[in-house]
Amino acid sequence: MMIGDDFIPPDERYEPGSHARQFSKADAARYIEHLYPGVSIVALEYLAGGYSSANFSAQLPQEKIVLRFFAGGRDGGEREIWLLRLTDQIEVRTPKILRVLRDGEQMIAAQEFVEGKLLSAVCQDSEQWRENFFAVGRELAKIHAQRFGKSGFFDRNGSVREGGEDFCSSLLAYVRESMQSRVGQRLGWQLAAEVDALVQKHGSIVEDTYSGPRLTHCDFNPKNIIMTSEGQNLRASILDWEFGISGHPLMDFGNFFRFSEDHPEGAEAAFIEGYSLGGETLHPRWADAAKLLDLASMCSFLDGDLESPRLLRTVRMVVNRSIRYLSRA
């Protein structure tokens, strides 16, 4: 594992958004009482790590659940619930929805508590790291096997409501336009100009590697993956589908390998082996396309009202790394 001068420890890269911070344990207890009338709460704990949605684990007398406050209002909640039901149908491991409550525009759900450990906590496991990354790659192949007729964002019923055939050029245009907006200002105009030039020079790689719209998680990283042992096998459960779209599958690769220094040497090879044995094929320039696509995620981080020095530092680090990586292409 190589760590450069621009390394930022995992717990210093992001901070939760305003929606994730607005709910307290008292709020969680009140909604659990609505969802489970007359059932006592044995233990209640806030689950750190959510960037937009807020999550609490709750031990009830007969079961343990996760209470999730969905981001994005009712539409966002309905959309994520639809995605979780879709993934269940295609046998991707995700938490099952147990009960749902609508309070005005806020959606709350009781979800299955998935036993296991976050991949972020066992990345460096000296005994099972290869099996972990292989299992995650295989699970991602099952996600990407789900195709759609067009690309874009899902509505609450699962229809693709935006996008079209020109998904790749639209995404790259968003990155370039962002460099002329407050995103570029926050990033720094000099760095923004380098990003714009990079996308102009290498953007065709994104189109070249695009095999059509697939189910794409868009937040596929070790903090959203729980590893569970089932006998001699390891299974990966995929959490937090709030950003799921019909899009370019290499967006998930860009997200997952954004901080490759967190992974042991050989993790990428094990991941790709699992992905390939899961039935999916990677273009020879998949890593270049993944870096380019991840620039769109970096833009979305800065394209909001929340100004965070911690987030800005992380985005600048990722962008500089992408420029260095793609400049050798």
In short, what is this structure?
With 329 residues, the chain is of the alpha+beta class. It contains 13 helices and 11 strands.
Explain this structure.
The two termini are 22 Å apart. The protein has 13 helices and eleven strands. Helix content is 43%, strand content 16%. It has two domains: 17-112, Phosphorylase Kinase, domain 1; 117-327, Aminoglycoside phosphotransferase (APH), C-terminal lobe (Aminoglycoside 3'-phosphotransferase, Chain: A, domain 2). It has 329 residues and is α+β, with helices and mostly antiparallel strands. Mean pLDDT is 92; it is low at 1-5. The strands form three sheets. The chain has a five-stranded antiparallel β-sheet, with helices on both faces. Strands 6-9-10 form a three-stranded antiparallel β-sheet. Helix 5 (129-144) packs across helix 11 (267-277), helix 8 (189-202) runs parallel beside helix 13 (309-327) and helix 12 packs antiparallel against helix 13 (309-327).
